[in-house]
Amino acid sequence: MTIERPTNITTRPSSEWLHRFAILVAVSVVALVTVGALVTSTKSGDAIPDWPTSYGALIPKQLVGGILYEWSHRAVAGAVALLVLALALWLTFSPVPRWVKMLGWFAVTAVVAQAILGGLRVLVVSHEKVQATALAVINFQHPDAVRIAFAVAHATLAQIVLGLTFAIALFTKPIDKGVFWASSKSLPFSLTRPTALSLLLLALVFLQLLLGSIVRHTDSGLIIPDFPTSFGKIIPPFGDLPFDPNNPQRMSYGEFAFKVTIHFAHRVNGFLIAALIFLMLWKLTSNERVQQPLKRLMLWNSALVIVQVFLGGLTIWTGLAVPVTVAHVALGATLLGLSVLTFCYTAFVSGEKEQAQKPAGKVDGQ
Hints:
Helix content: 55-70%
Strand content: under 5%
Strand order of the largest sheet: 1-4
Shape: globular
Largest sheet: 2 strands, antiparallel
Number of helices: 9
Radius of gyration: 22 Å
């Protein structure tokens, strides 16, 4: 298969410091996700009932327990927002293609939306008017459902920001004392088998983080109490789940079944991701035409997914111990970042280098 590609690829000098700053921003977003996981794992999301202030002040008088965790999350989020804004401005005044500049401003937009959703997540619990408005707009019957919806959307936007910053960090990387910039205003996309596999991996990892967010915010982490089995079986007995009608949470059978389904889907998708990563590792490392940076990325993906599956089991075996749960979330975010790099490298960077070495205007599909 062949697709048309722009033939005029130029190399321009790039600031090493722009690339380093982009890496710093990407790492800061991972740190933000980690602190957010700490807040969720310690159930500190409602420790400060107001927003954007904290007990009516910029800094609460007492920074202890859940208040410390929640305020630290807000402080890190504010710092990350400033870093993302600075990155977007730097990109705007640097000699990068227009689409790279747009990625920076997309990240800024996502950060602002994420902050607003985080604030609404707090106010929908503590502020009666906000709660009533949210229930009317979203048409939910229970405020807890609105809280979960805002929390999941807030977490999802964080992953989008993370993906954008990792992509920007890659696109600003100097190559042979310069960066390969596309002369075309459109993305220099290369459709190959590695690209398709890496896109599938990116989609599955993003879905996994979405499922994980739902599991955390619906308190479904221990709804299946064993691992790697599920109620002692490979597949949960959905037709005969061990439901206790006198459970202290007063869950209905439908709610219990939903939580089991979400939790089990999270596990299944995790094993699918691991299988796909090992398949890609085998295919890419055995292909001599694949460049070493991409092979190294797959080695990192493979190593981290093994640790991630182990951490997933450890969260069950330790009863959702906070350090283990936070590490599980942080590593999941890192895997998303590596998946973004893998996709961008197969679709754009490696394709441009191959194209720069060819006089033809077409790229052969692999």
